[in-house]
Amino acid sequence: MKFFYSLIVAWILTFTSIAAVSAHTNGASAIHEVKSVDAPTASLKITKDPTGGFNVQVVTSKFVWRPEMASMQYVAGEGHAHVYLDGRKIMRIYNGWFHLNTFQFATRSGEQLVSIELVGNDHAPYTIQGAPIGAEALVDVAIDEVGPKDPDTWKPIAIGTIVATSLLLILLTARTYKRKRSQG
What fold is seen in the domain 32-147? Predict the structure, then answer.
């Protein structure tokens, strides 16, 4: 029976991980290299929202926003954008305006870099000589506009709890089964 328990523990430890998994990946396996003359451009206009966070306008040229084509086939000059705060991808946008909710996305107060990257419908970034096409600006996040915790910090705890609970249930089930077999 000890071998059975050891096998179960080994299986659980092999196929589970306590590493946090990012919910945001770009999904791209390529890039869309464009010539400077044909390249889309982007700039940011950011204003503080009186209720918190920032209102952001993404001004583009030579670029068509195509939300209905997200995750579809690449068509030159169209797509959407990926938004980053402090180097961490936080969302996709499908038009030239969005609200940056710092309470939801900021993990600290102070000056932080907001950047956008123009991508094709297939999520692959537009680039010029390998450099992504986009825009960036600094925002100053107030201490009272930072959320309580980054949700990713709780993932290892949740996964660990699931593993421990599963192991406990397996052990209890095996013990009950063993008792029933010895009685009957």
Answer: Immunoglobulin-like (2.60.40)
